[in-house]
Design goal:
The chain is mainly alpha-helical. The chain has seven helices and no strands. The longest helix has 27 residues. The model has no long low-confidence stretch (mean pLDDT about 80).
């Protein structure tokens, strides 16, 4: 069982890396990111939307969470696309995926969740790594790229917390 989980996790990581590298390397006129999202939507939307409509425990909190999640996802993809036009994946991706630091901040501010010593140490380590990353590649386009990648991280943190709220009203994986 552990070998299967490890293999699936490894495959997931490789697919995620490949997706981001292809997004960065594709000709901007090809709109690779948007075509990939459209394909994903066409494949999964009929099943997921049907399950969502039928199975969800509908209330105002779920509707608000779904709204914020959708808007934040769109915001994330626009910002990520712009950042990839300005700098390499090795520069943009760690910043765009630094959202756990922001998630911890939002969870503390909005949900009164507390961080332990190890959590604070992890945040400090993450921020230190991001600061070093910015110093290693001081290219002319990295400042604008850092701004867009940071906006992508904000989008990720918002949709992650919105999803945390929404999942309480979704009884199955398909929903």
């Amino acid at each position: 069982m552990i070998d299967n989980a490890f293999a699936l996790l490894t495959l997931s990581v490789l697919m995620h890396v490949a997706w981001n590298v292809m997004t960065r390397l594709a000709d901007p006129r090809a709109n690779f990111l948007w075509w990939g999202l459209l394909a994903h939507t066409l494949i999964f939307a009929p099943w997921a939307i049907t399950s969502l409509v039928i199975e969800a425990q509908w209330n105002a909190e779920l509707i608000i969470a779904l709204f914020f999640s959708a808007v934040a996802n769109v915001f994330y993809f626009f910002a990520l696309r712009r950042a990839y036009h300005l700098a390499s994946v090795s520069f943009v991706y760690p910043i765009a995926r630094s959202s756990p630091v922001l998630i911890a901040l939002w969870a503390w501010l909005l949900f009164d969740e507390q961080l332990g010593l190890w959590g604070m140490a992890g945040i400090f380590l993450s921020i230190s790594g991001l600061w070093l990353l910015a110093k290693v590649d001081p290219g002319e386009r990295t400042v604008p790229a850092m701004k867009w990648a940071s906006l992508a991280a904000i989008g990720t943190s918002i949709y992650s917390l919105s999803d945390k709220v929404a999942v309480n009203y979704l009884p199955s994986f398909s929903a």
